[in-house]
Design goal:
The protein has helices spanning about 25-40, 55-60, 85-95, 120-130, and strands at about 10, 45, 70, 105-110. With about 130 residues, the chain is α/β, with parallel strands linked by helices. The protein is globular and about 45 Å long.
Amino acid sequence: MSLQEPNLVAWSIDDFVHNLVTFTPEYTKKLLDTAKVINPKLTFLPCCYYSKITPFFVTLYGHILNGILFPYRAESEGANLQNASLAETEIANLRTMFEPDFPIVLDIYASPHSKLGATTPEYVNEVLLQV
């Protein structure tokens, strides 16, 4: 599809870091190598949550991934969709673990989360102003 639709430039796997038993480094590399044969321009940005992005994860996966989709939810204080003030700090902490030019794409919950509830337009605006 990405070969036919020029606007399709990236793909993701939701909750990637919660499924590392399936998506081992070896399996992920094989999957991405196969995708690159089909379309070398297609970028892979798996969904990775703050609490699961550890130095160990970065060591195993950082060199394989093209970047990450980072759904902000204030996990450094337990996880919520009310506190916008930690977005900049969490992104800065992630940047210390990855290479300096590693893409971190911020994902802001503008609709309800299955466990953390709903956000507000004010919250979305506050997160945007943080970064």
